[in-house]
Task: structure prediction
Amino acid sequence: MNPVIQVENLSKLYSIQTGTKGASYATLRDTISGGFKNVLKGRLPKRKQTSEFWALQGVNFSVNAGDRVGIIGRNGAGKSTLLKILSRIVSPTRGKITIDGRVGSLLEVGTGFHAELSGRENIFLNGSLLGMSKSEIRKKFDEIVGFAEVEKFLDTPVKRYSSGMYVRLAFAVAAHLEPEILIVDEVLAVGDSTFQKKCLGKMEDVAGQGRTILFVSHYMETVLRLCNKGILLEQGKVKAIGKADEVVRMYMKSDGGGSSRRSYHHHPSPPGNHVVRLKEVLIQDKQGASKESYDVTAEIYITMEYEVLQDGFVFTHSFNFFNEEGVNIFNTHDTVSPIRSERRQKGIYRTTMVVPPNLLSEGGVSVGVAILSVDPFEVYFQELDAVNFTVVDYMRGDSARGVYTLGFPGMVRPLCHWETKRD
Result:
């Protein structure tokens, strides 16, 4: 199969003017008089200092017809620069791009429309730029206007549109004028949730028609639902290309994940005291594999290994869960196992607690561990951020979010029982 997009050794260099050291803003009079003084004293004007920034470096990939490619990465990774080059908005510094097919782009608000023209005129202008005839555009015209919900403002210059109206019309034009390749940046975040849902539905329709989509998003759940392939960018370079779920897992591991296993066996001063000391904390799935990311619908097993140094003490275990913002999601103590009330003997112990499926929400989670006695209350040790992992919803429809694809707030996401009866 011949690719519809072929990118070879693509690089983009930006030169950023930093100004002269100690420079400040000056009036025109100051600039002119200062220039004359320099000439009279035989000085040349100082040149502004510039720094170079490679937004992209040596990027190579190909996209086949019908692929839905999610482009992900941290801020500054080069995602938007890549889309602008593919959309021919900016030129590469070096490298080669081959594109076979009409390209419709929706990048930042303001791209692709002429501000002085009306909504009606911009629809025909964009269609013409895509190589469509007036009759082809007229066939899609009512559908575009209905989707964008701007009937009352069709003959108003788009410079007078609100950002929401602008985005609705821009997306409707890009998605309905039948480009073979649709390029979409995360401009959809400007719209409200109802409009975002419409856009995602429309992009699914476009993908179902066999057209090609390149989509930049920070919402991994949307990438997983919409895309079959993924490209992970890191500091302007391609870090991974492959199936969308595999690339998302790699991104979550590098961006939100940390260590799912921490050993204190050879630590010079492990957490603890003269009674008990921490040896290891480990996160695993049901099959015993230690990973950085876990399915939101699966059980997560967290094990703490510790050594009891003195006989006769009674204590219990505590785990504390925090999200990426450091907010305490929940705490849990061992209040059910028989050993919680037994006097311990010297030796190595391992205690495991199971996080039930469909409890945690998506995102990064860190786990703190502790051993303490309840009566009297005494903390033998507490190790915050001992291990961390990432929870991912793979959008199969079997989690609490179902088929909902937009932001799903909340620190926990239980799959609750629902029952509705008609009186």
About this structure: Residues 193-208 form the longest helix (16 residues).
